[in-house]
Amino acid sequence: MNIVVLAGGISTERDVSLASGKMIYNAVKKKGHNAILLDVFLGYEGEDTAHLFELEEDWAAQISGVGETSPDIEQIKALRPDWKKNFFGPNVVTICQQADVVFMALHGENGENGKIQAYFDLMGITYTGTDYVSSAICMDKGITKDLFVKYGIPAPKGIRIKKGEKETERVPFPCIVKASCGGSSVGVTIAEEEAGYERAKAEGYKYDDEIIIEQYIEGREFSVGVLDGKALPIIEIAPLCGFYDYKNKYQAGSTVETCPAKLPPEKTDEMQHYAEEAFRILRLKNYARMDFMMGKDGAVYCLEANTLPGMTPTSLLPQEAAAIGLSFEDLCERLIEISLRDKDQ
Fold first, then answer.
1. Which residues lie across from 207 on neighbouring strands?
2. Using one digit for the tens of pLDDT, what is the confidence trace for 136-152?
3. Do 234 and 261 form a contact (C-beta atoms < 8 A)?
């Protein structure tokens, strides 16, 4: 097959996306497919786009790993001063239309928020991952939380505040402050007192005009991938220092990850059940990953849903798939197969 691996963009998770894209690109090439790794924002400047899949070129050669901090997006935007009139880089749509499937390796805004998926639906382009409706729902953590509450999926108590809005409720310290629409823990802070709380809010507002303040759950952190509606083995995440922030997520050796997680069978069943229920009520398709906390009292809380989970060397979903004997290459192939199956239904 001809496959475009679509990565990059201008979200705070750009570097993570490129790292995911490189892994996926190499995997589908090993499976014998013709593949192109394409930056959705920078595009392809060449004139001949009709024979790109036939080129013997390493499209991932220039991509390095993920740094300790998110990239300077303003520098990327400066490369394309016209970007507000057309988000897609040169020839991106034309090249994607030539592919049998586009493997979505995008993370964060304009990747996981459903806008690109909606455009591809209109253009008849097949892609991996969930559709535009569920992408948009899950990108907004406030809407996700509202649905969790409505359908009985346990979640941390919290409030939403828009920039400039007066606070009518308070969440006791310590609390978690985070941007409503964001990922990779960018703009997430633990506030333990008033001064720290004000700094945390200011940090969150850098990334979104709405923030979420939640109760801080002290305990163990887990993640549960869901593949085609079925929960994968649970992985436990234990950072060596601090919480599971951007650095601890993507710097090798920063976090101890155990899969399958060491849990009593009833807790394993409970968490996997909630992951599958979240997948269903959020109208997700293909695959996703749900993040959980378990308090010291054993209570389970679902934090959020990730519609395009990371596929980097340190990412969680591939480790969970490996626990059931699914190699990274086979996982990528399976995601493509599900996408093509759903297209024909």
1. none
2. 999 998 899 999 999 99
3. yes
